[in-house]
Design a protein that fits this description.
single chain; 64 residues; mainly alpha; rod-shaped
C-alpha cells in the first residue's frame, strides 16, 4: 500500500479504518470500470467474424 507509511502518523483506529475504506472504494470503482471495458470489448469483438476484408471489418468501423 502506498499510504502504509501514513499509518504511523494516524492517531486512532477510526482514522486507519477511514483510510482503508477509501482504498476499498477506489478499488471497487476500478473493478466496475474494468467490467464495463470487458463488456465493451466483448461487444466490439462480436462485430467481426474474421471473414471479411479490412474495409468491411466491424471492429475497425466501430473504432473509427
Amino acid at each position: 500500500m502506498r499510504g502504509a507509511l501514513h499509518f504511523k502518523s494516524l492517531c486512532n483506529k477510526a482514522d486507519v479504518n477511514e483510510l482503508i475504506d477509501l482504498h476499498v472504494s477506489a478499488i471497487r470503482e476500478n473493478i466496475i470500470k474494468q467490467q464495463k471495458l470487458i463488456e465493451q470489448l466483448s461487444d466490439l469483438r462480436g462485430t467481426c467474424d474474421g471473414l471479411c476484408t479490412i474495409d468491411q471489418c466491424g471492429v475497425l468501423k466501430n473504432l473509427a
